[in-house]
Write a structure and sequence with these properties.
The chain has a domain at about 120-275: Thrombin, subunit H, CATH 2.40.10. It is about 40% helix and about 25% strand. It has three helices and twelve strands; from the N terminus they run αααββββββββββββ. The chain is rod-shaped, with a radius of gyration of 46 Å.
Length: about 280
C-alpha cells in the first residue's frame, strides 16, 4: 500500500511533537529532583560509561592534532615570505660585495709587497679599458699626466712585466701589453745570461728571438728583462721558456715563452715612474 506525502508529513509532525513534549517533561523532572535525583544519577552513570571511550579517542587523535599544530606553526603569511626573500637577497648581495673586497685586498697586497720588496718608485692604477680589437693588445688605466704618468713608463703586475705606457692623457693612459705584435722587450735567460728580445704576436703568443744557436736553452728557463735600451729595468720577470725548437735551416732557435703575468682579466697594475738606481742608461729599443 502506498502512503502519500501528505500522510508521511503528518506522521513526522506527530513524532516531533512527542519528542518536544518528552524533552520538556525530562527537563522539568531534572530541575525538580536536583543533583541527587534519579535523572542526575543516570546522567552521571552514562558519562562514567563513556569516559574510557573519550580517553581512547583523545589518545588516538593526539598525534594528528600535534601534527596539525606543528604545521600551523610553520605557515607564514605572504607578506612575511616576501620580507624573508628580500632579506635573503640583501644578504647574498652583501656576501658578494665582501668577497669581492677580499679578493681586491689580496691583489693590492701582492702589488704593494712587490713594489716595497724592490723599492720601486711606482704608482698604483686600475684597468678601465680592455683591448678593443683582436689586432691590438692595449689596455687603458685610470692614471695619466696629472698623476705623473708619461709615455714610455713600464707597467707591472705583482707576478711580472705586462707592458709599457704608449700614450698619456690628463687622467688616463694607454698601455701596450707585451703580447702585442708591435711589442719588444730586451731580455736574457737567467741560467745562461744569453740575450734576446721577447716579442708578441697577433695571437698573443710570446717568443724569445735572436738567441744564439750556440746557447743551450731548456724548457723552464726563467726569462728576465735585461735592462738594455733603458726602457725596462733590469731583472723584471717576463716569464719562462715553454718550448724550444731548432731546425738546421734556422739562424736562431725558435723559443716560445710563457708569460709570468696573467693578462686576461687584469684589474690592478703599477706604473713604474722611475727606474731603479742600478738600471743602465741607454737609448730606446
Amino acid at each position: 500500500m502506498r502512503i502519500s506525502r501528505r500522510e508521511k508529513s503528518g506522521g513526522d509532525g506527530w513524532l516531533l511533537a512527542l519528542l518536544v513534549v518528552a524533552s520538556f517533561v525530562l527537563i522539568t523532572l531534572y530541575f525538580r529532583q536536583g543533583e541527587g535525583g534519579a535523572l542526575s544519577s543516570a546522567r552521571e552513570s552514562f558519562h562514567a560509561a563513556l569516559a574510557p571511550v573519550g580517553r581512547a579517542g583523545q589518545a588516538a587523535t593526539s598525534p594528528v592534532r600535534a601534527v596539525g599544530s606543528w604545521v600551523s606553526d610553520l605557515t607564514v603569511s605572504r607578506a612575511d615570505l616576501e620580507t624573508l626573500r628580500d632579506q635573503n637577497a640583501q644578504l647574498r648581495q652583501r656576501l658578494a660585495e665582501l668577497e669581492e673586497a677580499r679578493l681586491e685586498n689580496e691583489r693590492l697586497r701582492e702589488l704593494v709587497g712587490f713594489v716595497q720588496a724592490r723599492e720601486l718608485d711606482a704608482l698604483g692604477a686600475r684597468v678601465i679599458g680592455r683591448p678593443s680589437t683582436s689586432w691590438e693588445a692595449v689596455i687603458v688605466i685610470d692614471r695619466g699626466r696629472a698623476d705623473g704618468v708619461e709615455a714610455g713608463m713600464p707597467v707591472l703586475a705583482a707576478s711580472g712585466l705586462i707592458g709599457q705606457v704608449i700614450e698619456a692623457a690628463e687622467n688616463s693612459a694607454r698601455v701596450r701589453l707585451i703580447t702585442d705584435q708591435r711589442s719588444g722587450v730586451a731580455a736574457i735567460l737567467q741560467s745562461t745570461r744569453a740575450e734576446g728580445v721577447v716579442r708578441g704576436s697577433i695571437d698573443g703568443a710570446l717568443s724569445l728571438d735572436f738567441v744564439s744557436r750556440e746557447t743551450t736553452v731548456t724548457v723552464g728557463d726563467v726569462v728576465l728583462t735585461s735592462g738594455m735600451g733603458g726602457v725596462y729595468p733590469r731583472g723584471l720577470l717576463v716569464g719562462e721558456v715553454a718550448d724550444v725548437q731548432v731546425e738546421d735551416a734556422d739562424l736562431f732557435p725558435r723559443i716560445r715563452v710563457r708569460g709570468a703575468a696573467t693578462l686576461t682579466g687584469l684589474e690592478e697594475v703599477v706604473v713604474l715612474l722611475s727606474p731603479p738606481a742600478d738600471t743602465p742608461a741607454g737609448g730606446g729599443e
